[in-house]
Design goal:
76% helix; mainly alpha; 0% strand; globular; 55 residues
């Protein structure tokens, strides 16, 4: 199943915003919460964050 670019961008924005709002927590906790909320793998979340850091 192909994902639309709009959906991917919204997902990236959500992940980056969530991490920013929860900076006081440990990264492992944030990633676990995102994994449960978005049904994504930890690797996918870290890839989104790394891509966001490059921009």
């Amino acid at each position: 199943m192909r994902r639309s670019k709009e959906l991917i961008e919204k997902r990236k924005e959500f992940v980056i915003k969530y991490v920013t709002l929860n900076q006081s927590k440990q990264m492992k906790v944030i990633v676990t919460e995102l994994t449960e909320m978005l049904f994504l793998s930890e690797r996918t979340i870290y890839n989104i964050l790394m891509a966001g850091a490059e921009c």
